[in-house]
Design goal:
The complex is a heterodimer of chains A (106) and B (135). Chain A is of the alpha+beta class. Helices cover 44% and strands 17% of the residues of chain A. A three-stranded antiparallel sheet of chain A has the order 2-1-3, covered by helices on one side. Classes of the chains: A alpha+beta (106), B mainly beta (135).
């Protein structure tokens, strides 16, 4: 278990102490538990965000726009007056160049 | 409700969308897609549906698909969206087509966050979203 010293502004410190009291009462280690929970949640959220697919539209090898969903991308292309037929779309989640197909295919 | 096991084959109801051209298949209701856990991709659809959705008008991406006998064939695809109508969930992925395909096939990319319970005793397939994040 590590011991670290951090600086918090007054308002954040008040919130931290209030949360600790509400969640764990006056138990020893309450402040640490609140911070641990907050950090775990932040880390999970960051991991989720990193896994989100981003779609990028290119025209003549120039990035036109990007979005986190196809609907958003369509909307952004429409706003710029770009026909989706004219752009190449690439996604951050790669398409495997070779994939296995099931036994239903003959 | 559409049977979820047809001729001993599990199927799932879906709607397919091309958000870039605002086209949907079918226009109303849903179609059934065969669940094939041997297919590593997202969704395979017959060429006529691929063209109906306008994917052939976009700058498609080609790749190789490996058949069970080791042979490879070329598929053509684009990014699209499916709606799993029975659980009202949507997801996006690479939708592809190959020549002479007659059925819609849903692969492991599309079902990776689902709990599928196959019950041949009652001839039912239960579909639920995962309760916890898959590893």
């Amino acid at each position: 278990m590590g011991l670290i010293t951090v600086s918090l502004n007054d308002e954040v410190e008040r919130t931290l102490r209030k949360l600790a009291r509400e969640m764990y009462g006056n138990k020893k280690g309450a402040l640490s538990k609140v911070i641990e929970t907050a950090i775990e949640k932040l880390a999970a959220r960051k991991q989720y965000t990193e896994k989100q697919t981003i779609y990028r539209a290119y025209k003549n090898n120039k990035l036109i726009t990007e979005a986190s969903s196809l609907e958003e991308l369509a909307e952004k292309l429409n706003q710029r007056g770009v026909d989706p037929r004219e752009v190449r779309i690439l996604a951050t989640e790669d398409i495997k160049p070779r994939a296995r197909i099931g036994y239903r295919m003959k | 409700m559409t049977p979820q096991i047809v001729d001993r084959t599990p199927v799932i109801e879906i709607m397919i969308e091309n958000p870039l051209l605002k086209k949907t298949y079918p226009k109303e209701g849903a179609v059934i897609a065969v669940i094939d856990t041997g297919y590593e991709g997202f969704l395979l659809i017959p060429e006529d549906i691929f063209n109906h959705l306008g994917f052939n008008q976009l700058k498609t991406i080609k790749r190789q698909l490996i058949l069970p006998n080791g042979e490879t064939i070329t598929s053509e695809g684009f990014y699209g969206k499916i709606i799993l109508t029975q659980i009202n969930q949507s997801r996006e992925g690479y939708i592809e087509t190959i020549k002479n395909l007659t059925e819609i096939v849903i692969g492991t990319q599309a079902i990776k966050n689902l709990k599928l319970t196959l019950d041949y005793c009652t001839n039912t397939l239960h579909t639920k979203p995962c309760q916890t994040k898959p590893p």
